[in-house]
Amino acid sequence: MSCLAGSVLLLRRIDRQRTGATLEEVLYISSPKLLKHLSLGYDGLLADIYWTRAVQYFGDKLDKGAEHYDLLGPLLEITTTLDPHLLVAYEYGTNFLAANGGQPRRAIQLSEFGIRNNPNEWRLYYGLGFVYYLDLKEYGNAADAFLRGSRLPDAHPFLKVLAAQMAERGGDIQTARMLWATTYQTTKDRDIRGNAAAHLRALQVDDDVTSLEKLVSHYRDKTGHLPQTFSDLEAANLLRGTPVDPLGHTYKLMPDGRVEVRVPDDLPFIQKGTPPGYIPPKPKFKPED
Amino acid sequence: MTAIDILGLEKIYSVGFWRKKPKCALRPLHLRVEEGEIFGFLGPNGAGKTTTLKMLMGLVYPTSGSARILGMEINDPRMKAQIGFLPEQPYFYDYLTAGELLDYYGQLSGVAPKERSRKVREVLERVGLADVIRVQLRKFSKGMLQRVGIAQAILHDPRIVFLDEPMSGLDPMGRREVRDLMEQLKHEGKTVFFSTHILSDAEALCDRVAIIHLGELRSVGAVVDLTSSIEGNVELVWHGNKVPAAMNALGADCHVTGDTVRAVLLEGNQEAALEALRREQLQIISLIPVRTSLEEYFVRKLQPSKAVAGVTR
Amino acid sequence: MSARILHIASNTFREAVRDRVLYNLIAFALLMSGAAILVGQISIGIERLVVINLGLTAVSLFGVVIAIFIGIGLVSKEIDKRTLYTVLSRPVQRWEFIIGKFFGLAGTLVVNTFFMALGVFAALLYVSQHFHAADGWVLVALYFIILQFLIITALALLFSSFSSPLLSAVFAFALFVIGTFAEDLRGFAGMTHGITRWLATGAAYLVPNLSALNVISSVAHEQPVPGQLILSNTAYALVYASMALCGAVLIFEHRNLK
C-alpha cells in the first residue's frame, strides 16, 4: 500500500517536471490517417477519446490564460478524421481555433472538411461564415457561406438574414450581436455557449459605453461643461437610473467625459470602456449550461 | 458371429521433420476374435497394442488393411453404439462431475433420456464410485479415474468392450475387482478384448491370447495350448544337502535350504535325475511337475526376435 | 445426428461457463456503469454517442477476445489432453464434433452478447431518460457483431484443428486485424500490378470482410443501416463461416490422433 502511494507521489513529481511535452507525446500518434487504420474499425470510440482530450486541452489552456493553443488544431483534425460526423468538433474549431487559437485558415479548412462529409448540416455553414466574418473580416465569403447554409431545408431562419447583413453592413455591431446570439441559442456545448455569452456581454458594453459617451457629449453641448456624475445626466433628463454593465457593476464616469467599466478584467472582448493603456489579460470565460 | 475381424491392419508412421523416415508401428496384422470370449492382447510396451486399438476405434487411420467389428466397418456409427472403449490412462473433462460425464457420454451413445440417470447410477455403483457421483473429476485419484473409465465403457451396454491396460493405476484390491468385472461381462455374453503387459492377469482371465512384439504378431491361441507347447519343468526335492555332480550336468537349478535341496529341471531329464539320486542313496521327498507359466512362454517366444530386432531397426 | 450436435454444443457451453468466461460480464458492467455516470462531464449532447460507441466497441472486443481464446483450444486441447478418445469411440462422427463445438462457442457468445446488450441499453436509458426510435439500429449493430463472432469462431476452430494454441491465436488475431481493413486491402490490390496484384487480390478476398460488419459509428450517429447491407452481411458471414468450418472438418477428419 505504502509503495503504491509512494509511486503515485513520485509520478506526480515527474509530471510536474516534464512540462511542455512534445506534440508527438501528447497526441501519441500524430498522423490522422494512420490512426484511423490502427483503430481497427473502432474509430467512433477513438474519435470520442480524442475529442475528450481536445476539450480537456482547451479547458486547461484557457484556465492558465495561455497564448497558444498549438495542439487544438491537430487534436480536432484527428477527431474529425476518425469520425467525420462529430459535428461538435467542427463547432469547437470555428469557435476556438480561429479566435483563441489564432489559426483561422485552419479552422476554415476544418469547416470545409466537415461540410464535405455532412453537406446537410446548416450549422457547419454557419460556423464557416462565422470565421470569415469575425476573424478574417472577409464579409463577402461570410455572406457566401451563410447563403449556402440558408438553402438547406432545416436551416435556422437567421442564416438568410445574416447573409443579407454581411453583404450590406459587415462591420456593424448589430450584425455581430446577431451572430453571437444565434450561436448562444443554437449550440449544445457549454464552452461554446459561455464564450458566446462573454462576447454578447462585450458587445453590450461597447454599445452602452458608446451611448453613454454620446449622452455625455450631448450634455456638454447643452450645458457647456462635463457632467460630474451620472445623476447630473439624470437631472438633465438624459438618463433614467444608474447605468450598470452586464455583470451588474455601475459604470464609472471619468472626469474627461469617458465612460469606463469598473472591473475590465471581468469583461473579456470589450473594445470600449477600458482605461487608457489597459492591456487586457488573455480572455477567460466560464462554460455555461 | 465374429466379433472382431482384423484383416491386415498396418501402420507406418513418417517420423522426422525434413527427411521423413518410416517407422513401422504395426506390421500387417491378421486376427479374429469370436463373440463371448475374453481375448488378451499381450506384449511389452511399445509393441503396437495401443496402435491396434486406436485403429479399431477410428482414432488413427491404417496405412493399409481393414477391420470389421460385428460385421460392420470401423467408422460405422451403428457399430460404435455397440462397443465400449477404455483408453490407456484415460483423461476426462475435469470440470464435470462423474455423474455429468457419464450422462454426457450416455447422450452421445444414444442412451434414451428416460433410462440415462438410472444407468449412470447403476454403473457407478458397479465400479464402486456411487458416493462420488457429484464430485468433480479434477479431484479424482488415478485409481478413481480408471474406474470412471471402465464405467463409461460399459454404460451403454455394449456387446464388445475394448480395454487398454485396464489394471493400470489400480491397487491389488482394485485389480481384483476389475478381474471380477471382466468375468461378469463374459457371463453376460459380452466380448472382452483387452491389452496388457501383465501376464498373470491374462493367464487368469483369457480364453485366448495374442502375443505381439515390435509390431509383429508372434502367436495366437488358447492359453493352455500355448503353455503346453513348451516342454515343462519338474521340481525335485530331497533330503540332505548334497548335490550330485550329475545334477549340474543335467542343467538343473539347485538350491540348498537347511536340510533339503530343491532342484528344477526339464521334464525330459527327470529319469536321469532320479537315477543320480538313487545312486547316491539320497532320500527323495517329492517330484512335482511345474506348470509352464505364460510368462515363461512369453519370454521364450520373444527371445529370438531380439536378434532380429537389430536388423529391422 | 442433430441431437448429438446439440449435446456437444451444450457441453461446450457448460465448459465455457465453468471456465468462468462469463465473469467478463462483471468487467463489462463496471465499464458501462462508469461510462454512463462520467460521460456527462465530457460534453453535453454527445452522451448517447459516447455510450453507444463505447458499449458496442466493448461488446465487439470482449467477444473477439473470448472467441479467439476459447476457440483456439476447442480442438487442440481435446487432442492434447486425449479427452477425445472416449468421445470419438462413441457413435459421434468427426464432423458432428466440429459443428457441435462451433455451436457451443457461438451460443456462449450470443448469450454473453445478450447480457451485454442489456447493459448497453441500460446505460443508454440512464443518459437519455427514454428510448429513441433510433435505438433500434443499435440492435442491428449488435446483430452484425454476432455475425463477426461467427466468422472469428469458425476461423479459430479451423486453426485449432491443426495448429498449436499459440500459433492459432496469432493467426486468428492477425486475420481479425487484417479483416478490419479488408476494404482498404481490396483498394490497394486494385492499384498494384503483376504478381503483387494477384497475391494481394487473393489475400484481400480471402480475409474476412469485417469492416462491413462494423456499423458502430453510424449507428451512434443514428444513421439507419440499409436493408441490403443486412442481407448481404448475413449471407457473407454464413458462407464464410461455413467455408472455415468445412476446412476444419476436412482437416480433422484426416487427422491421426496421437
Walk me through the structure.
The complex is a heterotrimer of chains A (289), B (313) and C (258). Chain A is mainly α. Chain A is 61% helix and 1% strand. Chain A contains 13 helices and 2 strands; from the N terminus they run αααααααααααααββ. In chain A, a hairpin with a 5-residue loop joins strand 1 (252-253) and strand 2. With 313 residues, chain B is of the alpha/beta class. Chain B contains 11 helices and 13 strands. In chain B, a hairpin with a 2-residue loop joins strand 11 (253-257) and strand 12 (260-266). The radius of gyration of chain B is 24 Å and the shape is elongated. In chain C, 77% of the residues lie in helices and 0% in strands. Chain C is built from 12 helices and no strands. Chain C has helices at residues 2-18, 24-38, 47-71, 76-81, 85-88, 94-128, 136-160, 165-180, 182-191, 194-206, 216-220, 227-253. The longest helix of chain C is centred in the middle third of the chain and has 35 residues, at 94-128. The radius of gyration of chain C is 20 Å and the shape is globular.
Keywords:
heterotrimer; B: 313 residues; alpha/beta; six-stranded mixed sheet; 13 strands; C: 258 residues; mainly alpha; 12 helices; 0% strand; globular
Architecture blueprint of SSEs:
The complex is a heterotrimer of chains A (289), B (313) and C (258).
Chain A (H helix, E strand, L loop, with lengths): L1 H16 L5 H5 L4 H7 L4 H21 L8 H11 L4 H11 L6 H14 L4 H13 L4 H12 L7 H12 L3 H14 L3 H34 L6 H6 L16 E2 L5 E2 L29
Antiparallel strand pairs in A: 1-2
Chain B lengths: L1 E14 L5 E14 L3 E5 L6 H9 L6 E6 L7 H4 L2 E4 L11 H12 L3 H14 L15 H13 L5 E5 L7 H16 L3 E6 L2 H7 L2 E6 L2 E7 H6 L4 E7 L5 H5 L3 E5 L2 E7 L3 H10 L4 E7 L3 H19 L1
Parallel strand pairs in B: 3-7, 3-8, 5-6, 6-7
Antiparallel strand pairs in B: 1-2, 1-4, 8-9, 10-12, 10-13, 11-12
Chain C lengths: L1 H17 L5 H15 L8 H25 L4 H6 L3 H4 L5 H35 L7 H25 L4 H16 L1 H10 L2 H13 L9 H5 L6 H27 L5
Helix pairs in contact in C: 1-6, 2-3, 2-6, 3-6, 3-7, 6-7, 6-12, 7-8, 7-12, 9-10
The number of distinct helices of chain C, counting runs of at least 4 residues, comes to: 12
Number of E-type strands of chain B: 13
How far apart lie the N and C ends of chain C? 26 Å
> What value does the Rg of chain B take, in angstroms?
24 Å
Provide the helix percentage of chain C: over 70%
Helix content of chain B: 25-40%
- Morphology of chain C: globular
Give the helices and strands of chain C as they follow along the chain.
Answer: HHHHHHHHHHHH
**What's the story with the biggest beta sheet of chain C?**
none
